Amino acid sequence: MDRKIRVLIGKPGLDGHDRGAKYIARALRDAGMEVIYTGIRQTPEAIANAAIQEDVDFVGISLLSGAHNHLFPEVARILSEKGASDIILFGGGVIPEEDIPNLKKAGYAAIFTPGAPASEVVEFINLQMENRQ
Amino acid sequence: MSSTADIIRGVSEGSIRAVARALSMVENGTSNSSDILDELFGLRRGITLGITGPPGAGKSTLVNRMISHYRDEDRSVGVIAVDPSSPFTGGALLGDRIRMQSHASDPGVFIRSMGSRGHLGGLSGATRDASFVLSAAGYNPVIIETVGVGQAEVEVADLADITLLVLVPGLGDDVQSMKAGIMEIGDIIVLNKADNSGIDQLESYVKASLELMPSGLKRPEVIRVSATAGEGLDDLWAAVDRFAASHTEKERISRSAIKTLNEILKENGLLFSEKLLEMEYNGREEAEELILTGTMSPYAIGKNLLKAAEGMFEHNGSK
Ligand code: B12
Ligand SMILES: Nc1nc2c(ncn2[C@@H]2O[C@H](COP(=O)(O)OP(=O)(O)OP(=O)(O)O)[C@@H](O)[C@H]2O)c(=O)[nH]1
Ligand SMILES: [Mg+2]
């Protein structure tokens, strides 16, 4: 059996900053994961649908524009509405410290801000996978 | 929703979550995957389109157009897009979907990305099985995009009912040297990026190399398009329909059933050989050791395994 960790990296809303998302996507690939990148300017609904069709274990959301307080919870809401709350959510971007507790309450297991090394993200995913088993 | 029966029922009812789970099961080769495929096999219908061609030729962009076209005809569309897995880490960046995301909110479109997972030939080992799952769930057509291919990855033609080979200007002399292999798998040859200079030259190269094809083979139609500008697409859809009409659904279904049997025989052969190796030589490692130390040749081992198998069958037959 050839099980791979599958991760979808999504960018909701109008934010065009995609370096961070691509950087994380490549780092996860290099850690042996299968990474689906949706590209920029996706609706939360399109991201949730893609995550379900791709049967991913994780969805990582990236936002640098400041719209995270609305868009992050929106993705979480649609996923659980579609019966996919077992998918583990995490995210990153330019996100002020004081916003993080609310995002966690909305279902995000971790938030990574500028300067976070990719190795931390890989570790986070591997740990989550272990806990899940 | 993880019992095999639930999954099978879910797929036949077109449940998106069930289809997604079934695809993972066949892709990962979980123990119930052959049960799932056995049940779903008879439900598959409709047509499978293969899209292949070199990296960056515009395959995904064309698939995106194709989805719109079949959605306009009110057909549900399934897509399997294969991208290469790294041979070193096993990881993969599956990016074909980016060009098809405009369909992500459409419940009549199911797109699944797959890593090639070490399989050569332009597909992944589970692509055929995955296409059956989508077909059984009612998606018609099922479109398969291969990894960007070179000269030898022709496997998709074996799986698809119709194979589109996408070529682009700038390949130049390479196209001439493509004569064999890849040029022969295109039922339709799509010359994409017709908005770029060099398209006339590409067309004459392609036509010249088709002239060299053995006379018995059916010459593919050659169609110019621009997937980004949306030009020439109606001609392409018409060519696909024409080609599709040259076979009945029954012919397509039986051809794919026989091809599938061939694949299963190969896979079973491999499993069976491993078992024989286990019995006769305590497994692959010891057999390799015998070869590396010069004690036995690979041929001698092969011969012994066949003899052992024959012995087993005779024994069984006489009891
Ligand atoms: C480069 C840059 C641009 C480039 C973007 C190029 C591109 N294709 O990405 C350009 C010049 C185009 C640009 C434009 C704009 N930008 Co700008 N830009 C930046 C800048 C300087 C760096 C961003 C970057 O690429 N960093 C490098 C990457 C690797 O880091 P990162 O994205 O932060 O990712 C890291 C973490 O955040 C995290 N991460 C990020 N995503 C994810 C996802 C997951 C799943 C995980 C786990 C982790 C994770 O991990 C990464 C590694 O540590 C930032 C300032 C800053 N220092 O952040 C401003 C910044 C983001 N930009 C800003 C603004 C305002 C704009 C513009 C609106 C400016 C304008 N008025 O035109 C436009 C909007 C563009 C658009 N369409 O959205 C503001 C945003 C303000 C806000 N949030 O309130 C910032 C913060 C600058 C500022 N201090 O004002 N920008
Ligand atoms: N000028 C022009 N560019 C095109 C056309 N079709 C696709 N492209 C561009 O070609 C690039 C590659 O397109 P894709 O659709 O990703 O190509 P692909 O064959 O799927 O690529 P891989 O899956 O990576 O092998 C993109 O930048 C497209 O916008 C076309 O008709 N004309
Ligand atoms: Mg592609």
How would you portray this structure in words?
- The complex is a heterodimer of chains A (133) and B (319).
- With 133 residues, chain A is α/β, with parallel strands linked by helices.
- Chain A has one domain: 3-Layer(aba) Sandwich (Rossmann fold), CATH 3.40.50.
- Chain A has helices at residues 19-30, 44-53, 68-81, 100-105, 118-132, and strands spanning 6-10, 34-37, 58-63, 88-93, 108-112.
- A 5-stranded parallel β-sheet of chain A has the order 2-1-3-4-5, with helices on both faces.
- In chain A, helix 1 (19-30) crosses helix 5 (118-132) and helix 2 crosses helix 3.
- The longest helix of chain A is centred in the C-terminal third of the chain and has 15 residues, at 118-132.
- Chain A is globular and about 40 Å long.
- The relative contact order of chain A is 0.19.
- The model of chain A has no long low-confidence stretch (mean pLDDT 96).
- With 319 residues, chain B is of the alpha/beta class.
- Chain B has 3 domains: 1-43, no CATH class; 45-247, P-loop containing nucleotide triphosphate hydrolases (Rossmann fold), CATH 3.40.50; 250-317, no CATH class.
- In chain B, 49% of the residues lie in helices and 13% in strands.
- Chain B has a 7-stranded parallel β-sheet with strand order 4-2-5-1-6-7-8, with helices on both faces.
- In chain B, helix 9 (199-211) links the parallel strand 7 and strand 8.
- The longest helix of chain B is centred in the last third of the chain and has 33 residues, at 249-281.
- The radius of gyration of chain B is 22 Å and the shape is globular.
- The termini of chain B are far apart.
- The A-B interface holds A 1-4, 25-26, 28-39, 42-43, 45-47, 49-50, 52-55, 82-84 and B 16-17, 19-21, 23-24, 27-30, 85-86, 89-95, 97-98, 101, 104-105, 110-113, 115, 117.
- Strand 2 of chain A pairs parallel with strand 3 of chain B, so a sheet runs across the interface.
